[in-house]
Amino acid sequence: MAEPEYPEKFTGPIANKYRETLKLFNKATELDPKFVDAWFAKGDFYFGYVNGEGDAIECFDKAIALDPKYEPAWYGKAKALAKLGKHEEALKCCDKAIALLPADAKDNDRDDNDNYFAGRWCEKADALAALGRDKEAIKCYDEIIEMKYQMMKDYALGQKGITLAKLGKHEEALKCYDEATKSGFYRGGLDQVEMNLAKADALSELGGPQERMLKCYSSAISICANELVDNERNPVSEYNWEKGVKKLQEICSQAINGLKKYNDY
Questions:
Q1: Which of 6, 12, 67, 200 has the maximum number of C-beta atoms within 10 A of its C-beta?
Q2: What's this model's pTM, rounded to 2 decimal places?
Q3: pLDDT at 248 over 70
C-alpha cells in the first residue's frame, strides 16, 4: 500500500504519531496475515485519519475475505465507498452489513467498536438519496427516526427533509428541519450550515415569512465566516481558508437566489 496522504493539519509530531501507528498495524498484519481484527482496525485507521479510502477498502476486503460474516468490515467498506462517490457499491455493502447485524440491533445503541447501529441505515439512506431513489431513502430515514435510541434521529430528520425538498414537498421538509433542530444540539452529524440553508430555501419556496428566511440565510453565512477566523486556538491553514472562502461564496449566492425566488413568489 502507498504511503497515505496526510491532511495539512496533520504535520509534525501528529503526522509522525500516525506513521508510527500505521507501522504497528503493518507489523500486526505481517505477523499474522489472518488476523481479521487487525485488518479491520487498519482499514478503520486509513479511513478515519489519513484520507486513505482506497487503502481502507483494500484492508476491509482482506477482513471480509478471511471472514465474510465480519459485519464491521462491510460497514467500514460502505462508508469508504460512499466517500468516494461509489454509491451503488456502498448500498450493496450496507445491505450486507444490515443483514449480519443481531436481530435486536434496532433496539440497541452502539456496537463493540462504538459505532451507532443506526449508522448502517443512515449510510443506506444517504446512498439511496444520492442515487435518486428518493422514496426509498425516505422510508429508510423513517426507520432510523423510529429506532429506540435517538442519537441519529436529528440527522435522519434533516436528511429526510432535504430529500422531501427534492420532491417539491417543501412544507413537509420544513417540518422535518424544525424537528431536527429543536433540541439545539445538532446531534448525529447534523450540519448547522446545511440545515439553516435548507430551512431558508424551503421558506423561499413557500413564500416566507421573510424575516425567518433571512435569519436562516444569515446564520449559515455567519457560521461559515466564523470558521475562517484564524487564531491560536483554531489556526486555519491556507488550504482550509481557500476552501472555506469558496464555500462562503456559494452560500451567499444561494442566499441571493433564495431572496430573488421569494420576491418572485
A1: 200
A2: 0.84
A3: yes
Amino acid, res. 184: G
Instruction: Give 208's contacts (C-beta < 8 A, 6+ positions apart).
Output: 262, 265
Mean pLDDT of 37-58: 90
Rounded to whole angstroms, how far apart are CA atoms 86 and 263?
Answer: 39
Query: Cβ(152)–Cβ(118) under 8 Å?
Result: yes
- Three-state SS at 110: strand
d(CA 78, CA 97): 9
pLDDT tens column, 179-214: 988 866 666 677 899 999 999 999 999 998 999 999
C-alpha cell at 185: 444540539
Q: Is 85 left (phi over 0), alpha (psi -120 to 50) or beta?
A: left
Q: Cβ atoms within 10 A of the Cβ of 70, count? A: 20
Domain extents in the chain: 13-191, 192-265
pLDDT tier for residue 109 given thresholds of 50, 70 and 90: confident
Are 128 and 136 in contact by the 8 Å Cβ rule? The answer is yes
The architecture in CATH of the region 13-191 reads Alpha Horseshoe (1.25)
